Amino acid sequence: MQRYHHWRDLPPEAKGSSIALGNFDGVHRGHQHVIDLARRDDAPLGVLTFEPHPREFFAPDAPPFRLMSAAARAHRLDWLGVEHLFQFPFDAELAGLSAEAFVEDVLVAGLGLRHVVIGADFCFGKGRKGTAEDLKRSGAQHGFDVTIAPLQSAGGQIFSSTAIRDALSAGRAQDAAAMLGHWHRIDGPVLHGEKRGRTLGYPTANMSIAGLHPPRFGVYAVLTDILTGPHRGTYHGVASLGIRPMFGENMPNLETHIFDFTGDLYGADLSIALVAHLRDEMRFDSLPALIAQMDRDSQQARRFLGKL
Q1: Do the domain assignments include residue 108?
Q2: Which tens digit of pLDDT belongs to each residue from 101-126?
Q3: Is the overall model pTM greater than 0.85, yes or no?
Q4: Full residue range of the structural domain in which residue 288 is found
Q5: 3-state secondary structure 255-302
Q6: H or E element: which one contains 184?
Q7: Is 88 left (phi over 0), alpha (psi -120 to 50) or beta?
Q8: In Å, how far from its chain's centre is CA 289?
């Protein structure tokens, strides 16, 4: 997948795509439908999205809400077969473009696109004044096709990033996965931690969740994909997500114990899939009580993951 970071001076091979346009946070089943509608035999498949997320630009001090980082989103789009990723900076210049200027400067002069697919609730341009129907009229004027994808749902639940965040906040990992079309994942490098897990018999790979919407704190059965380094592969494990109340720490992170694994993972990139919330965070009276609970958590996670 080729990546481009501004609409000006794109190379000729980057122009003329059929693109899906949106923020694609989570790349959920609704997003996947939009992308599928952009697949054409006569044009490369592209995705146009923005970084930072417009919501982060307009409300930089708001609590973290993103389901995935830009890197994780790109990885997922690549996996879906996207050929061109146009990840343009959402800054004061882009935010100040009128709907008409966005079409003329970005979509026509910049991308030279042939076809664009948007969700029915898509808005664009300064003040979000442009609607999906406005874009359809502009496409007819400028010579590109516009497809408006209806919102996707199942069981009366519309697939949306908001609904997925709500499910994760409640610890309903499998409900979130049903809307995503894949397990919710936390991606990133393994960081150096306090290394307490080693002394407890449960070494962990520690990862930051900074900038991401925090799922319900607690212990999860997880699938671990090691993406880089000599130990690449998929493993079963158990993870603790939260602030570690036993040790008086309050910066949320993710600590994953990989079953039956030995090796150094510092600096490796991991992707941790939250499969099932097993219990909430707890504070224990002693380390032996904590270790006994970790034994029970591991046994429960092994049983759960063994059924997948």
Answers
A1: yes
A2: 999 999 999 999 999 999 999 999 99
A3: yes
A4: 183-305
A5: EEEECCCCCCCCCCEEEEEEEEEEECCCCCCCHHHHHHHHHHHHHHHH
A6: strand 184-189
A7: beta
A8: 35
Residue 177 lies in a domain: no
**pLDDT tens digits, 226-256:** 999 999 999 999 999 998 755 555 689 999 9
Task: Specify whether the CB–CB gap between 44 and 156 falls below 8 A.
Answer: no
Q: Which helix (H) or strand (E) holds 37?
A: helix 29-37
Rounded to an integer, what distance in angstroms lies between the CA atom of residue 46 and that of residue 4? 11
**CA separation for the pair 144, 278 (Å, rounded):** 50
Are 50 and 85 in contact, with CB atoms under 8 Å apart?
no
Residue 102 identity (one-letter amino acid): F
Q: Which of 116, 135, 154 is the last residue of a domain?
A: 154
Q: Is the domain of 212 the same as that of 121?
A: no
d(CA 89, CA 98): 16
Q: What is the CATH number of the domain that holds 253?
A: 2.40.30.30
Answer whether residue 206 is part of any domain: yes
